[in-house]
């Protein structure tokens, strides 16, 4: 193990076991899996690394969990006798001016950890399957993320604790590492998530306005969608487009919603459904009044420049949670929507909080603070975390998005394949839905995103729409659509009915990657069923 830290501006390094160290005290427990340091002088941590020797074979497969909700998370396998020949997506094929101009690094771990093409990077948990197996899970996620670098060709795994910038006063102790391992990938996953208790266990079927109208919503479109939701719908959620600009959450666009949102909430409740709203509580776009008039609330880097969180809308920026006024604004916004009567909150772009950590704290500690604000204000309301660091939502959020947005094209437009690992893609999100299913009903309830069966305003084939619907129904606990079910013909109505039965009663028994296919076994009505999902074409075979 190597720990690096700054003392009086000088970078120092300690390799354990060490003798005569007088800056920090290191205590190692549980066979070296739990490491606690105590500062003997005021220091700032830089990094902490533990190497693990592990032998892979040419038939090994590796799963690496992504940094946030949208990050591609799947098993990587070998092809043509090359060990782990599949490549993890990064930004190395894009010009630097494009990367910086669109703030592509801000969406994922590349903002703070340089991608390495010789390794696969997992955050907080990962596994290797094959002749020899290993599962690694971070138990220290409230203090620091665990970055797991699994080398493709060398028999080496590096564990890096994300402690950069963590300040320790003289006499202060901090847990740098606390992780578990298991020699079985499957048993390790089960053990890791069995330690958790979900906040909610109630599955929901509902409507969201996003994947049909996107920001082009108004009062009439929302009421039309509400009238189309039959008695099977339990949730009706208004998505982005009701506000004047992202960040100006107290300013509803009066040209779209002249009567405000309260009458809609009342009608949703009269229909016996939960009323849902979309917010990005820690974000403000460049055109917003908040960004223009209160620049003091916006996060800046050490040079005083605004930190760009992404290129959505007119470009957007995170609030600075080091400023108590920013925290007060977030609380005020949440209370406003609680007072309007909303029951369900889809809280989006939550990763933005980590772009400017709390002073002297880690990124994970910052997210823990930010997410606790949401839970304190919303109390018994249902929370769906989206664009969020998953481990910080463990046992806090009712639901968590576990993949990127569904695209109306299977893998979105061609040039997006070169973009960040959090890009919109139905192809990616379906694999996330399957491979992150171990968290469902343990850490929280998984949201695999929408099912879509309609023929208009969509470029997914009929078979791809069927696969999306069936897989989401089997593996998810929040089933949403942006369709008008009244427009369905008998075939589509039958597919929806089948999906709702699977969603309610089916149990996935087993899944396994076989080259480009994922083989799935499940049980429903006392009978076992199976199918192959073609990850390249997005269709189901033999099922």
Give a written overview of the molecule.
This protein is an alpha/beta fold and 543 residues long. It has a domain at 2-194. Helices cover 21% and strands 27% of the residues. It is built from 11 helices and 29 strands. The protein has helices spanning 96-101, 185-194, 210-213, 219-228, 262-270, 289-293, 324-339, 363-378, 426-435, 462-475, 490-505; strands at 2-7, 10-15, 24-29, 34-39, 43-53, 61-64, 75-76, 119-123, 125-129, 134-138, 146-151, 156-161, 167-168, 173-182, 204-208, 235-238, 274-279, 283-285, 316-318, 344-347, 382-385, 399-401, 445-447, 450-451, 478-481, 507-514, 517-524, 527-534, 539-541. β11 (146-151) and β12 (156-161) form a beta hairpin. α7 runs parallel beside α8, α9 (426-435) packs parallel to α10 and α10 (462-475) packs parallel to α11 (490-505). The chain is globular.
Core attributes:
543 residues; alpha/beta; seven-stranded antiparallel beta sheet; 11 helices; 29 strands; 27% strand
